[in-house]
Amino acid sequence: MMFESLLIVAGGLLGSSHCVGMCGGFVLALGGSSGRHGMLTRQLLYGFGRVFTYVCLGAAAGFAGWRMSASLRTLLDVQAWLCIAAGVLLIGQGLHSLGLLPLGRLTTSRAGCLGPPLFGSLLGATRARSVFLGGVINGLLPCGLVYGYLALAGSSGGLLGGMTVMALFGLGTVPVLALVGCGGGLMSLTSRGRLMKAAAVCVVLTGVLTIGRGAVFLTSSTQEPGAACPLCSNVQ
Amino acid sequence: MLKSSPTCCSFCGLPLRNEDERTSAFSRLRLGDSPSAKPQAAAADEDSQPLYCCFGCRFAAGVTRSGGEQGAAGWSLTCLGVSIFLSMNVMVFTMALWTQDFYGPDAADPTSTLLRGLFRHLALLFALPVLLLLGWPLFDSAVQGMTRGVYSTDLLLLLGVLASYLYSVASVIRDAGPVYFEVGCMVLVLLTLGRWLEATGRLRTREAVESLQRLLPERVRCLRDGVEVMLPAAELQIGDEVRVLPGERVACDGVVLHHPATLDEQMLTGESRPIIKEIGDPVYGGTLNLESDFVLRATAIPGQGTLGRIVELVENAGRTKGRYERLTDRVSTIFLPLVVVVAFTATTFHALRGGIDSGILAGLAVLVIACPCALGLATPMAVWTALGTAARSGVLFRSGEAIETLADVRTVLFDKTGTLTTGEPVVAEFVLHASEDAVSVLHEASRLAAGSNHVFSRAIRRFAGNAATTEQSVHTRPGRGLFSVRSDGDNSYLGSPQLMEEANLLAEGEASCAIREAMDGGQPLTCVGWAGAVRGVFVFREDLRPGAVEAVTALCQLGVEVRVLTGDHRRRAAVIAETLGVPVEGELLPADKLRAVDEARRHGPTAMVGDGVNDAPALMRSDVGVALGCGADVTRDCAAVCLPGDDLLRLPWAVELARRTVRVIRGNLFWAMVYNVIGIAIACSGSLSPVFAAFAMVVSSFLVVTNSLRLRDGVESQRFGEVSLNADRPGG
User: Residues B611, B419: contact at Cβ < 8 Å?
Assistant: First the structure.
């Protein structure tokens, strides 16, 4: 479990290079305005806003997964199948980042009428609460990587488990994005590309591990699904 | 820049609904209020307080207005952002409570009891600000709407949300019973988001028209007393001379002075094509100067010329209600009271069955899902978008109803002269009698022709090179031609062969051959003669407009029956029929044309395409009148559709756009009604959580908005190029 947690953090850490590609513009916009708070403070506030959102989403995912498994316990091993589904999603996302699996863009470019005005004003703001809120909204934006990890959170078997998974992931994404926002261009394009590849591999690995866990659940069907996860002990 | 007129929303610029347009039972209850009083009151308020058509626009205005200065986020936005943050917390607390509840309250375990109490109080703490931040503006907006006679479910919704809050607070205080804070929070957040989405969508429907308005530059080069000054366009007066450089847009309607100019009139015609304007030709505000600088004399102030009239036409078109919108209004009239009754019934039923909280939730779910936002948006959004798209492409619909009727059209009747043909005949043949001198005959003919504005006279003068300019006492004999006194005392005549006969002018030799041939072939002709003989014969040719054949073919391919009506000789009609490939009825008097329209209407909706002036009766008789050749005078009343660019190919395009629009309207309406009916049914049964209902509502609005905005695409003409005069280039 410890290994898996580390892997999630690493996925977030390295996955943030993917984030830089998608959301780098936002953190750079943050840096554009001057204000009472320092640049780093603003970046961190923004990052924590995102992490807050991820944790909430993780809680929802974990809860939903737990509820599904609780109510469908007799029908099928929901947790096992959630693990497998999560693993597939993560592998798919990772392979997509590696360029091996062409999928459509998950973000809708056409109809995001709310995005620009909501976002723009919050990003350009100088007040602490606006920056934080900007991060909160950013976390709600569609992102394939986040969905993959949300699926993992769903398979974790409970509220706390889901929150933990997403907290780990979110915290992993904060350093790199904050640095990018501060420095603007810490990494060259080639090293960023390599980092993205490494991140993708991490994500794929996590996916494989998750499928493995799901398979274990399936085969040992007599075992209580939640028991294998130490994070969920309070649920029992 | 949005026009703020008293009957328009200050944010999206679209018409405000007032009690004139609704015949809801509630408005009849208000005694002592005459319908005419309301718009006046709105006008009085215009300066003091902006009016909005709905809560969404109010919210969106709050976002865009107070944002932007030094990057401060608007109050509305902060409210929403904070509410989202708080609601997410409430959701997490609630889910924790649900997890606990699943295993049953365990009184023996002090930790779990403590946690339970903690979470309940935390939920309360985080949920109350949301009620204040989002609930208050909703309440305020609903009350304001009521004073204008516009009723919506908003107030009832708020009541339901408040009820759920009160119940939950009571539960926390009593330390027993379930809490439903997440319901209140999520409903408020989603409601606000949904309304904002609609307001933004409505704003987007105006994009096309706004892009037209933005074509006018803000500063102009005015020549005053020979000195060139840069003025704000608003200070321009009629009669001022304005210099326009290449690449700039013309600021106002005017007349070309000094040198010819080459302009792109895409804003009028929808197509980018250089048009040469000679001295004295009119130019229109918003057109693009292509090649060299020129000077114009202003004939209208900016914004009140052609462009202003087009914009006004489109905006007025958006205010009239078509068939579908009237249907929706009728449905809405009974819908609102029905929903109220159903909600109360559901509340009572479920309250009696499962406790007050079940009742509140059921009633709230009904109210949320029954919110007729999608229904109210379904038609207008599609129509407004289509109007804007059409206007940008050189097709002006006078109303939404015109779009709907054009979509259903089964037959299109064309008038020939001036519609399918350019209306400006050219001299194809000039036949002289015996050994006459061409120059003197031409001179005499054009002298006579100068006395009339008839198309044939103009053609003759063009043919003669516009040489003669003096027109001394040229008289007209109606239906026959012109005559005048020559220098040698004799009368000379210019006109039809009948006029020649009546004036005892004989046609001989080649002249008589030419006359006979022309009449056999159905070609129009004019003779000129004096002193007992016809001296010359002009045979005319009328060219079809460019694109006429393609337009007719395209219409046929759309499944529309096309026929041509003309007063021309039957043989001429046959020639045209062969060129176009459609039946042509010839030798029709104006009354016959009306009869033809009536005949066609028996088979289905009929469109008549003609010149807005000469064919006015026929245009009015048809279901949809399409006016060509009105040029820039787009305010002619008789035609439902106006093609200011005189481009016939716009007509099949317009028919296709109309059909697409009606498909979108039907799709929107179907979805909105089905979703409402099914949703209400599920909500009544008590199985629908208000949170899911709110999600469904947002998704529904989103779908209607997106579906309607699809009509913005499909415009094959190029986008306008924007050249701003404001960028101060060095050297002017």
Answer: yes
Residue B573's pLDDT is 82
Nearest-CA distance from B78 to chain A in Å? 7
Give the count of beta carbons closer than 10 Å to the beta carbon of residue B586: 20
Contact B369, B697 (CB under 8 A): yes
Q: Is A59 part of the contact surface with chain B (CB cutoff 8 Å)?
A: yes
Determine how β-strand B561-565 pairs with β-strand B411-415: parallel
Contact criterion met (CB < 8 Å) for A63 and B99: yes
pLDDT for the residue B492: 86
- Calculate the CA B654 to chain-centre distance: 12
Q: Which of residues 20-49 of A touch B (CB under 8 A)?
A: 33
Nearest CA in chain A to B81: A133
Chain A with chain B: Cβ pairs closer than 8 A:
98
Residue B503 is classified by DSSP as: T
CB under 8 Å to B196, separation ≥6 — which residues?
A114, B56, B59, B60, B63, B80
Q: Tell me the pTM.
A: 0.73
Q: Cα–Cα distance between A154 and A169 in angstroms, integer?
A: 14
Positions of B annotated as catalytic residues are: 415
Q: What is the dihedral of CA B89, B90, B94, B96, to 10 degrees?
A: 20
Tokens of B95: 């889910």
- Tell if the CB–CB gap between A121 and B204 is shorter than 8 Å: no
The tokens describing A96, both together, are 């997509």
Q: What is the percent of chain B with per-residue pLDDT over 90, rounded to a whole number?
A: 14
* pLDDT given for residue B125 in this prediction: 92
Whether A117 has its CB under 8 Å from any CB of chain B: the answer is yes
Query: In the structure, what pLDDT confidence band is assigned to residue A26 with cuts at 50, 70 and 90?
Result: low
Q: Does the beta carbon of A159 lie under 8 angstroms from any beta carbon of chain B?
A: yes
What's the pLDDT at B409? Answer: 94
Contacts of A58 in chain B (CB under 8 A): none
Q: What is the pLDDT of residues B645-686, one digit of tens each?
A: 778 888 999 999 999 999 999 999 998 888 888 989 998 888
Q: Given an 8 Å threshold on Cβ–Cβ distance, is B63 in contact with A137?
A: no
Distance CA A61, CA A115 (A): 24
Tell me whether residues A136 and B88 touch, CB distance under 8 A: yes
Q: Whose CA is closest to B372, among B679, B116, B77?
A: B679
As a whole number of angstroms, the distance between CA B466 and CA B278 comes to 15
Q: How far does Cα A12 stand from its chain's mean position?
A: 7
- The distance of Cα A211 from the centroid of its chain, to the nearest Å, equals 18
What's the whole-number average pLDDT of chain B?
A: 79
DSSP B265-316: -HHHHSS--EEEE-TT-EE-TT-EE-SS-EEEEESS-TTSSHHHHHHHHHHH
Nearest by CB: A60 against B63, B73, B95? B95
| CA–CA distance, A11 with A172 (Å, rounded to integer) | 7
- Least confident residue range of B70-79, B242-251, B653-662: B70-79
Q: Output the pLDDT for position B616.
A: 78
Whether B246 shows a pLDDT value over 90: the answer reads no
Distance CA A137, CA A122 (A): 9
Under DSSP, is residue B7 helix (H, G, I), strand (E, B) or coil?
coil
Sheet of B606-611, strands arranged across: B396-397, B641-642, B624-628, B606-611, B411-415, B561-565, B584-585
Lowest model confidence (mean pLDDT) among A145-154, B596-605, B669-678 = A145-154
Under 8 Å between Cβ of B394 and B313: no
Q: Which two tokens stand for residue B563?
A: 């026929």
pLDDT higher than 70, residue B86: yes
CA proximity to B601, closest of B324, B339, B409: B409
Supply the angle between the helices B75-102 and A115-124 in degrees, to the nearest 10. 100
